[in-house]
Design brief:
There is one protein chain. By secondary structure, the chain is of the alpha/beta class. The protein folds into three domains: 164 residues, Lyase, Ornithine Decarboxylase, Chain A, domain 1 (Beta Barrel), CATH 2.40.37.10; 279 residues, TIM Barrel (Alpha-Beta Barrel); 142 residues, 2,3-Dihydroxybiphenyl 1,2-Dioxygenase, domain 1 (Roll), CATH 3.10.180. The strands form four sheets. Strands 5, 14, 15, 16, 17, 18, 19, 20 and 21 form a nine-stranded mixed β-sheet that branches. It has an eight-stranded parallel β-sheet with strand order 6-13-12-11-10-9-8-7. A hairpin with a 5-residue loop joins strand 28 and strand 29. The longest helix is centred in the middle third of the chain and has 21 residues. The model has no long low-confidence stretch (mean pLDDT 93). It binds pyridoxal-5'-phosphate (PLP).
Length: 614
Amino acid sequence: METSRKTIDEMLSVRDDELLVEECRAADLARRFGTPLHVVSEDQLRRNLSRFQSAFERHWPGPTLLLPSIKANGSLALRRVLTLAGAGCDVFGEGEFEAALRTGTPPEKISLNGPMKSQGLLERAVRAGVMITLDDIGELETAAAASRAVGRPARVRLRIRPDLAGQASASEMSAAGDSIHEAYQRYKAGIPTGDLLALDRVAPEIELRGIHFHIGRHSADPEVWVEAVGDLVEIIEGFRARLVGWSPSEIDIGGGFPVPRDPFGRLLPQRRQADDGLAPGPEQYAAAICPALEGGLRSIGVDPASVRIELEPGRAIYGDAGIHLARVGNVKRQAGPQPMTWVETDSSDAYLPDVNLEFNRWRCLVVERPLAAPEITADVTGRTCALDVIIPDAELPRVEAGDLLAFLDTGAYQDAGSHNFNSLPRPGTVLVHGREAELVRRHETVDDVFARDLVPEHLAEEKADGPRPWRPYLIDHVAVNCADLGRSVHFYCEVLGLELRARGESDGTDEFAITGRGEVPIRWADVEVGDGQVVELIEYGGPRPPDPAKAGDQVHVALRVSDIEAVHRRICEEGPRPADPFLIETPGAWQGARVFYATDPDGVSIELVQPARG
Ligand SMILES: Cc1ncc(COP(=O)(O)O)c(C=O)c1O
């Protein structure tokens, strides 16, 4: 029998004094996946999307297209949820463009935005048929050149910079206390209005579809958008006067819509006293923006029903779909001179950076007693050497080491903006759907943190008690010698379902010379297990076919090393000298690698591989 359940919001509830995310107990997620941990609800993502979609469909006379901003959370699985739900995507630059394509987002629903887009990127965009949102007037020429190179028109929208001249209220984004007008003017994105209105023609390769603007999160007041729409209509009117006969068929009003509980800017004076009521939602924005835009367009002779309205919510789609779980490791108290309590957790402001970047104040619950009344005031901190305050002066129930904390509304921008200060690996993300939970971004490892580092050879000095340059750091591949390559490829690919990555033949004189078998015909295939892990299948012909009685003839293990000479010296010191390291010059994936074979005490072949630099 289900005991009484108290609802916190659509995805969070409390049952038996325990926090649930959809139907999953937060404490179970922490135990199963470890902390710190980002948890995102697939169901909440869908609900947020459909609320925006239906509100704008209800209020706008023409078509509506949702382009949630992938920058808010780059997880491919989360993006896949939105793609499957029919959403398009706002992307900045190569990485996000790639993420949208890899997750199957239809190209005609992708808006490629961002400054200084290279011609190469624009050519890719034109070839794919995505919408290109230009950030500067000079990009018109780059887009035209890309279109000529590809032989297809470029589908272009112009990102404008409305003045927001009348917006004198304080920007909730500005620590300096600037007005919305002042803060917005400093923001570099978009084409200066003077440049735009100087334009009286565009190249024939450019299919000029529409106008884009994005105010950002300066205010949650829908009236700010209504006023901005006034500026937008004025710019479109001026532009139509220059480009006679032109009308927009797409108007993208960007994002900036708040998360319902709206942690944004609450550490700044202008929001410190904000009440705990919910921010306006999609219905209120649609009800304010759509009539203003519809009326404005009619007044300048544009039929609104022929215009598709587009939105790029980021935080409002992802924010309240995510929580962050962290374990309390210690509660430290100082009696004086300044009394302090620190609730030290295994997380960090490096993983929840908007406490510093956007001055967010997170709401925090103790997972095992989420409804307990506050009893203490403490700084909730993380484990770096910096100030690392995740919540300053948090009002919390009594907590102790081992308690689990849930920070709410962390689904947008936190993982995306996180970093590795103190060389800390970043937490993974779990996706929850009803009772199901799956890891969709694994926890980073310390090896991941150093994966891009290269220590030049002259610095990798060999010292008795220092680094051990001969030590292998990765299994490069495992090789299996087979009697019939076709039969083995069938087994590994068709029976086990692995991917055939490459196959080929050799006469034994190229890189296969390292096996020391002489000039025997060789057929080989690489099958991939995942994460780049390879099983290599080798069929040797000729006078020395594999001898099943010898372990070394059946398999070999290839170990990756960073200093092949050091490994070679080390093995020579121990026993019989193997062949010298061999530089592979044959063009292909192995070109530039240095390799030699050795045998272990049982005669098993070990291949030592130093990959090509870079
Ligand atoms: C062009 C554009 N669209 C949409 C967004 C998403 O904004 P938000 O997450 O505030 O909705 C951003 C954020 O920077 C943006 O630059």
